């Protein structure tokens, strides 16, 4: 058995292993740039006259950070192992509950743990429940797995309202992150301190999850996703691959939950509920499950919609839904897939030729979008908005939703824009196909 | 006892009321290149699926190197030194050619479910994968997603994944099916070289491949072995000619 290919006669000399080492900066600059942006971002919203950070922006950025970990941990199952989970939030939420209890214990003096390491409690909690739920769920794959995780999600959400001791019922578990125990002497009473703590944990988790894809388990997870039967016949038990992957994914989801507990100082049952699981799924799909980066982009977009657009519109969830459907229908590879599709054209150096077709598509696209948004907003203001006593105003101009004119304008924008878009889209496709054929002819397709 | 690599004792397999394998006894000595032939529907692939653990046997026993393996899961059988390829190409299409080969090596090299080894740093593992890739003539394709290889290249890759782990018993299910003449010739020489010193059991339709490679041929007709002998005597066997060669070779 161990007499492997090493003992076979060497036909050719071993070629130099993989690519020559590249300078660290050259290879990792996008990562470093992302970290830099994360570090300086709050300062763009810093109010220099009052000397205060914007609490809203800091919370939103913190949310992006922890949801990035959550979405990436979800993608450890979905994109990398081919396991679609409908109950991923239970690992996140349970990690959060564990963290909230740990914080309270630290506060009471029953436990000593510096705040910087408290997210690890969430991680260990997530790991524990990952083992527990993963052991059952990973016995199956594909649809059966999805159904089991959905059932588990419902089960935990129901349990959260029943077991008061651990879950605190409807009110959840409140906590206080200012425990007075810190390695760095930080109090974490202000949100910028929490934000930077989250940034550090995001960097650690993203790096670890990235490295995990380059390990034997990470690769065999891909192999089981591609062809679980083949994986069996190279000696791997696909069930165990799924199990370990699920378990590790639980660890990272738990850390995200731990950061959530520190950020909001309360963990309620909606951290384990289905909409939370759906958020990870949406972010991963919109960003692209195929690559490692996809979920990060998707998370940024979804959280911006969630925190930003939800301030402006009652119908923000509808926009997320529409975006999701459009992505699944027209760009199953997500944003990353869309960008990646340009690679062959970029390789033959003719990306520039797409600029004009893009602009020609974007203009009617914008019209169509405005039409849709206007109709949705008009509808939402006549129903929910009216009951909330809100009035629709566009650029300071009050719009009376009871008159016909705004509806006609919106419908016209949608119809004309849509019609125009169809024509331009066809022209765009022709140009795209021509450039793709050219790329294929030059052998730059793959 | 331990001179026999694969031993089948009155193996039967039924799907519902239909008995596909109807009592097969077969001993394949270590180091032999053994071919199974037979008309379509004779149960050749089913026999492979039974030996490799893909399906459980209905009755009878299968032993690998003297120890019974019937009832074991495919990965357990693989870990005991039996590896197989599939009639319909079975690779990891979204992973690169290099990764495909490396996946075939991981378990045998003892990496198990490790999530603490970085594959890029496993020098000897990577070199071994690289060497095998060169032997398969796929070196130039190493970074291509395996699903984009030509058909013949995918078949060669599958043979590579199959033998990568160093199993002593190799089962190949129609390794040259659908190949052109030159591709077939190349595949035969490849199979001959990579299975040197190993026990090879193969299902094949191409008579030139069989008579070129096999030490012993077993003829399976409707789930029963009607002959098992060296190629020259199989060729002369009346029953075989009637059941199989007579119709196919005509």
UniProtKB/TrEMBL annotation, chain A:
Under Gene Ontology molecular function, one entry of this record is: branched-chain amino acid transmembrane transporter activity
Source domain of life is Bacteria
**Topology in the lipid bilayer:** Multi-pass membrane protein
Q: Which InterPro entries match?
A: ABC_transp_permease (IPR001851), LivM-like (IPR043428)
**Where mainly found?**
membrane
Question: Transmembrane region positions?
Answer: 29-48, 55-74, 86-105, 117-138, 144-167, 194-211, 243-267, 279-304, 316-340, 361-384, 404-421
GO CC, sorted alphabetically, is: plasma membrane
Query: Where does the secretion signal sit in this chain?
Result: none
Q: Where is the protein found, in the record's own terms?
A: Cell membrane
Pfam families xref list: BPD_transp_2
**Keyword vocabulary terms for this entry:** Cell membrane, Membrane, Transmembrane, Transmembrane helix
Q: What is this protein called?
A: Branched-chain amino acid ABC transporter permease
Could you tell me which species this protein originates from?
Answer: Vineibacter terrae
Lineage start: Bacteria, Pseudomonadati, Pseudomonadota, Alphaproteobacteria, Hyphomicrobiales
Automatic annotation (TrEMBL), chain B:
State the CDD domains in the record.
ABC_Mj1267_LivG_branched (cd03219)
Q: Which UniProt keywords apply?
A: ATP-binding, Nucleotide-binding, Transport
Q: Which domain of life is it from?
A: Bacteria
Q: Name one GO molecular function term.
A: ATP hydrolysis activity
Domain ABC transporter residue range list: 6-247
Q: Which SUPFAM superfamilies match?
A: P-loop containing nucleoside triphosphate hydrolases
Q: Say if the entry is tagged with keyword Transport.
A: yes
Q: Which InterPro entries match?
A: AAA+_ATPase (IPR003593), ABC_AA/LPS_Transport (IPR051120), ABC_transporter-like_ATP-bd (IPR003439), BCA_ABC_TP_C (IPR032823), P-loop_NTPase (IPR027417)
Question: Would the keyword ATP-binding turn up in this protein's UniProt record?
Answer: yes
Name listed for the protein in its UniProt record: ABC transporter ATP-binding protein
Gene source species: Vineibacter terrae
